[in-house]
Design brief:
The protein has 5 helices and 14 strands. The protein has helices at 64-68, 81-84, 114-120, 123-135, 218-228, and strands spanning 2-5, 11-14, 19-26, 32-40, 46-49, 86-90, 93-97, 141-145, 150-151, 159-165, 170-177, 181-183, 189-190, 195-198. Strands 5-2-1-12-13 form a 5-stranded mixed beta sheet, with no helix packed on it. A hairpin with a 4-residue loop joins strand 10 (159-165) and strand 11. The chain is globular.
């Protein structure tokens, strides 16, 4: 199973990768909480997924990128996640964080936010923090057990999810799960990880990965970059 980023074009998915559509759902307080499956697409050995955001046959590519002059230049780092991560320690837990990977699905904000939960350190807070880290679709946040050195991760099948953000009333990224290989347009490989999110609106400044541009304004993105020191 492999995803190839085509130059100024779509994602070529090979190897009969299952494709689903899922919706982000919120709790009674309006915090994003979980994904609910909406449908499963027919399984295909090879298929093309839209990357420019303009296809009239989403999530599949229909060639519109050629008409709109889509610039799909990749700017994301190919360095391993752990080499770029900042570390937040709390007791027997360690949170690693690479802010530029954030897809802004907002799962880490529930109950005061993941860092505040780790600071509290009681059993209930720790359990919520673990849930938030494991559901972070972009893999920006990973929570580790310092005693074993192992991360808290869900056991995802190799699959791709077309995300719909009901709260923001927009289409979200492509959620790639289970460690599928992703190859850049120039043949380099990005680190295969259990969860990453790929841009499908065409506006990300961290292509091919999502940076929240599908719903964030320029001002919101600038504020986020300043907060986390992203250049």
């Amino acid at each position: 199973m492999r995803i190839r980023v085509l130059k100024d074009g779509p994602y070529l998915v090979e190897g009969s990768v299952p494709l689903y559509e899922e919706v982000i759902v919120t709790d009674e307080n309006g915090h994003t909480r979980e994904f609910v499956e909406r449908r499963e697409f027919p399984l295909k050995e090879r298929y093309l997924l839209c990357r420019c955001g303009a296809s009239k046959n989403k999530p599949y590519c229909d060639g519109t990128h050629l008409e709109v002059g889509f610039d799909g230049t990749e700017t994301a780092s190919t360095k391993p996640y752990i080499e770029r991560a900042t570390v937040f320690r709390a007791g027997d837990l360690e949170l690693t964080d690479v802010p530029e990977l954030c897809d802004h699905s907002r799962f880490c904000l529930r109950a005061g936010g993941i860092r505040e939960l780790l600071r509290k350190g009681d059993r209930e807070s720790i359990q919520i923090a673990i849930e938030e880290a494991m559901i972070c679709p972009s893999g920006r946040l990973v929570l580790w057990d310092r005693r074993t050195g192992k991360p808290y991760e869900r056991d995802y099948e190799k699959s791709i999810v077309v995300v719909h953000d009901k709260q923001k009333k927009c289409e979200g990224p492509l959620w790639v799960r289970g460690g599928i290989k992703i190859e850049s347009a120039d043949g380099k490989e990005y680190e295969a990880r259990n969860r990453v999110t790929l841009c499908r609106c065409g506006l990300s400044e961290n292509k091919p990965f999502c940076d929240g541009s599908h719903w964030m304004s320029a001002e919101e993105k600038l504020e986020f970059k300043k907060k986390w020191g992203i250049e």
